[in-house]
Amino acid sequence: MGKGNDVGGLKAIAKGIKAKGLQKLRWYCQACEKQCRDENGFQNHCESASHLRAMANLRSNPGGAIQQYSEEFLRSFLAHLRHAHRHTRLLANHAYNEFIGDRHHVHMNSTRWTTLSEFVQYLGKEGLCTIDYVEEKGWYIKYVDHADPFANLNVNVDRAKKETVAETEAREARQLALQVQRARTEGAAAAPPPLPSVTKIVPTDVGPVRMQLATSAGTAATTSASAAARTAVTNAFLAADEADDDAPSRKRARAHSGGALAAIMREEEEEARRK
Q1: Measured between alpha carbons, how far is residue 29 from residues 39, 87, 217 in Å?
Q2: pLDDT given for residue 53 in this prediction
Q3: pTM score over 0.70
Q4: What does the DSSP assignment read for 135-165?
């Protein structure tokens, strides 16, 4: 029976299963192109003689090594887009996940781009891909095939469309500003005149106010005639009442009034004699 380390043994199969697929990026050594499965294995690899020799070679020309890794990463990524998504617009993150499916690819941490967003913006700036950003989703990319005679035409059309949209927005903004300025000018010209100032009236002590109504001569004459008519009517009513009284009553009243007058005259004569 074979040992566990033999080809086809259980231990070899287990190692193959563990090594299959992606491992953590921080445990990958780009200089040696070796993927470690855990932190202990990565630490042992960093202390090995082969790793130290590779790092010494990179230390002699660090800029050249980074430039080389960057070119390899860019070339491999564009090749993946050209073969898998030549005429498709897709999320940059989705394309990157497909690209790193190869465990022997050049890792981005060894290139001059630190993030995927920075790399995507570089592709758009160089005209290698058309890019656009969508809120809550991220960057979208579309490969530009320079071998296709219509590729540059499509890029120019997209650029012209964006410029047209920008010019239209700027023109609308200018027209809106002019309308606002015109409305302000017309409003200032048609503004109503200012209201007069209100002066507070302070009452002064001028004493009692007397009023006299002036009457005309005709009014005074009419008033006099009315008073005379009322007096005549009153006298007529009094006369009628006296005529209705009986004769004995009148006689007794006259006799009574005469006796009283005589008594008063007598009293006055007596007072005169006493004096």
Answers
A1: 12, 34, 133
A2: 85
A3: no
A4: TTTEEEEEE--TTSTTHHHHHHHHHHHHHHH
